[in-house]
Amino acid sequence: MNSDTRWLNDHEQEVWRAFRELLWGFESAMDRQLLRDSDLSGVEYSVLASLSEADDGVMRARDIAQQLDWERSRLSHLLKRMEARGLVERVTCATDARGFNISMTSAGWNAIRQAAPGHVTFVRENVFDPLSDAEREALLSATTKMQQSIRDAGLWGNTKKSS
Amino acid sequence: MNSDTRWLNDHEQEVWRAFRELLWGFESAMDRQLLRDSDLSGVEYSVLASLSEADDGVMRARDIAQQLDWERSRLSHLLKRMEARGLVERVTCATDARGFNISMTSAGWNAIRQAAPGHVTFVRENVFDPLSDAEREALLSATTKMQQSIRDAGLWGNTKKSS
DNA sequence: ATCGTTTTGTTGACACGTCAATCATGCAAC
DNA sequence: GTTGCATGATTGACGTGTCAACAAAACGAT
Q: Which of B20, B32, B87, B145 would be A130's cystine partner, CB 3.0–4.6 Å?
């Protein structure tokens, strides 16, 4: 139907293919490394990392979800599993009876402290070390522009559309 | 413990943060667009796209899995759902009694033909249009290098390690 | 021919994500 | 203060992914 679609030429297909492969492969490799070295999944690491940046390892669930740009239910499901694993605890919130404070247990602290070096090393060895300075800067500007473009198209993240 | 970890400085954190955000956000936006415009999930689109490149829309399941670098079980689960939706059919293979030929139904053809223009447009508008020529080339070399680095580390894809 | 191994594919258990529905609480308007 | 709406969080259904176990056919060596 849409006969004026601007299809990709050969070179564009090559770029797109490489990018798309990396898109799925990078996260999956990162998760694999994390799981292998520290018995944490990628999403568990994200939550623990957020918590560890708070003063005492305690945050409102709402704030975690906002910081990670996650849906509430996604976080809720995950926290249930993490609580069962003993990594975090739900504590009722004194100032808002609806809310919960999520608090890292000592097992949670141990897990994130053990996992962080390997994770950072993964990023350094597979992102920064292989790239030249120019490539690193181009990567930053390219990712920023793509993200902005998707935002402009109203397709980014979990933010609800304007009616 | 690993006290010689080379942590990220501020600028590196900024690059890493932008890249990581794009990593999860891009795929999710793409899937959202696809689902909205054509009632196909991203993975369903991948399978149908592979099939549509075969002469008659028929491929061995094994070859689809290999082309997409997927685990067999992942494909098997998905094909079961896609067959239930009427997008593909499993046909017993004449030359190998273990295997199955996966064949697109006419509904499958219709779905992929309807979805393709919007998908290509998404890629063009959010990858190629926002990027300069230099950025496009840098993106290609950067993604290629990251992927190669991960491969060298033995963390890429579903290929089993060498015992 | 038969034995052991590889290949092909399925299944079940479980981790994970989205969506829609639900529920209680806070809050603002009146 | 009650009515109405927004907010914070949970739940259940279902699509999706991984992993390990399984079964059956193919294959290669003897």
A: B145
